[in-house]
Amino acid sequence: MSIEEKVQEYKENLDFFDDELQKYEYLIDLGKKLPDLKEEEKIPTNIVHGCTSQVWLVCQRDNEVLSFRGTSDALIVKGLVFLILDIFSHQSIDTLIETDMDILYELNLSEVITPNRQSGVMGMIKKIKTYAKECKGV
Known about the structure:
Layout: H1 3-15, H2 20-32, E1 55-62, E2 65-72, H3 75-88, E3 91-92, H4 93-98, H5 103-106, H6 115-136
Antiparallel strand pairs: 1-2, 2-3
Helix pairs in contact: 1-3, 2-3, 3-6
């Protein structure tokens, strides 16, 4: 599934809920699906900058396709991590580099999550793009 298709799927899921509390609960439920990282993966190199809470992001490469694992120490942020990792995992390096999408706007999350959490989402996307560029040698 493409990044755009995954974003559309999450948008439809989020649009289903009438109020912010229901959207928060949805994000928290997503976070409960997130497998935890090993302690040895929770190192400074894997920390996402721009997040108020602690977020770690690990990249795995399989030829020209990247997948991501991550976690956070905050429940709602775990849901955001799950969402971002699901959208961007299993994509080609070139696709990740070329994708220029305002996920917060596309999912209407800027109306639901705080500016600090918005900054954290942007930090995750920036780190994903950095991983892709490093793999490409850009």
